[in-house]
Amino acid sequence: MLNSRSLSIPTIVLHWLIAIAFIGVFALGLYMVDLPRSPDKFALYDIHKSIGFLILLVAVVRIVWRVKEGALPAASEMPAWQEKLGKAVHGLLMLATLAMPLSGILMSIGGGRAIEVFGLQIIAAGEKTPWLQEAAGTLHGMAVYVLVALFVLHGAGALKHQFIDKDGTITRMLGRA
């Protein structure tokens, strides 16, 4: 059973795995988007899409684990508005870990492209569906801005808890509580 100061190892590992993978795939996406069309750019897209697919799988595991484990224990008492904002940011981040890779997958499917993970075909190529490709592409692009805002809020909240509230939030997310 978790006390108010500890988090389970799976919670910590899944959090950091998704965080690091998202930052990496985000950085790769920013780098490759303005590259000229070339075999190198397409190889980077394949890596980007493969990592995105793996993020989706880990995100599903994380959400299932979160439901099984229940709400994370609060690190400290806080005003109701901060608690609500924190829960909203966490919920939206969880939703984003599904929406970003799903929109990328739908963008590829809409473009008539197969879904491959490091060369292993998961879904065969099909007919182009331009409206799907465009809608998913718009969602994928807009979600970047939402994710950046959520990352900033999440990081600011963690820093506030650690250094102003002095409740050890970052310490416990590092497995040291």
From TrEMBL:
InterPro entries found in the cross-reference section: Cyt_b561_bac/Ni-Hgenase, Cytochrome_b561_oxidase, Di-haem_cyt_TM
Required cofactor names: heme b
Assigned keywords, A-Z: Cell membrane, Electron transport, Heme, Iron, Membrane, Metal-binding, Transmembrane, Transmembrane helix, Transport
Similarity section: Belongs to the cytochrome b561 family.
Protein name: Cytochrome b
Leader sequence segment: none
Main location: membrane
Coiled-coil segments on the chain, per record: none
Pfam families: Ni_hydr_CYTB
Keyword Ligase: no
Membrane topology listed for this record: Multi-pass membrane protein
SUPFAM superfamilies: Transmembrane di-heme cytochromes
Transmembrane regions: 12-31, 51-67, 88-109, 139-159
Organism: Vibrio agarivorans
Subcellular localization: Cell membrane
Keyword Metal-binding: yes
Highest rank taxon of the organism: Bacteria
Domain Cytochrome b561 bacterial/Ni-hydrogenase: 8-175
